[in-house]
């Protein structure tokens, strides 16, 4: 399984971006999917996690601004980000977490990342 992100870029405060995560290889419903982000000088943090039943859990800082969705068949995932703020500036990473009756606690597959920059 290989993950490839795209869709990053530069926007002004309040703008929107749609990140895509392309999946090479069959994942079916074997993996939970997630987006993480890492800002310069900060630790990587989880943005959203979706289980194999398409139930998504968002970090508190998302505050209903982001939406995670799955394409059918499962060859792509999307993160729609609205109401972007300068503090959302980071590299964003798509990740797959093996489903073991629950989502594995840490990602098993990472993408290479895509940069999001929000200016004030």
Task: Provide a short characterization of the protein structure.
The chain has 120 residues and is mainly beta. The chain has strands at 2-6, 9-12, 17-24, 31-38, 45-50, 56-58, 66-70, 76-81, 90-98, 109-110, 114-119. The strands form 2 sheets. Strands 2, 4, 5, 6, 9, 10 and 11 form a 7-stranded mixed β-sheet that branches.
Give a description of the structure.
- The protein has about 120 residues and is mainly β.
- The chain is about 0% helix and about 50% strand.
- The protein is built from no helices and eleven strands.
- It has strands at about 1-5, 10, 15-25, 30-40, 45-50, 55-60, 65-70, 75-80, 90-100, 110, 115-120.
- Strands 2, 4, 5, 6, 9, 10 and 11 form a seven-stranded mixed beta sheet that branches. Strands 1-3-8-7 form a four-stranded antiparallel beta sheet, with no helix packed on it.
- The termini are far apart.
- The model has no long low-confidence stretch (mean pLDDT about 95).
Number of strands: 11
Q: Alpha-carbon distance between the termini?
A: 37 Å
Task: Determine Rg (CA atoms, Å).
Answer: 14 Å
Helix percentage range: under 10%
Order of helices and strands: EEEEEEEEEEE
What's the number of helices?
0
Mean pLDDT level: 94
Shape: globular
Give the percentage of residues in beta strands.
over 45%
The profile of the biggest β sheet is:
7 strands, mixed
Q: What structural category do the secondary elements indicate?
A: mainly beta
Parts with pLDDT < 50 across at least 5 consecutive residues: none
Query: What multimeric state do the chains show?
Result: single chain
């Amino acid at each position: 399984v290989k993950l490839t992100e795209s869709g990053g870029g530069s926007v002004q405060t309040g703008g929107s971006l749609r990140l895509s995560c392309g999946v090479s290889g069959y994942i079916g419903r074997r993996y939970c999917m997630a987006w993480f982000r890492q800002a310069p000088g900060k630790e990587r943090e989880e943005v959203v996690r979706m289980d194999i039943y398409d139930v998504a859990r968002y970090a508190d800082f998302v505050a209903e601004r982001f939406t995670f969705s799955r394409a059918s068949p499962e060859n792509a995932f999307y993160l729609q980000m609205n109401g972007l703020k300068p503090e959302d500036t980071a590299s964003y990473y798509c990740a797959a977490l093996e489903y073991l009756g629950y989502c594995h606690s840490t990602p098993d597959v990472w993408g290479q990342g895509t940069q999001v920059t929000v200016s004030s």
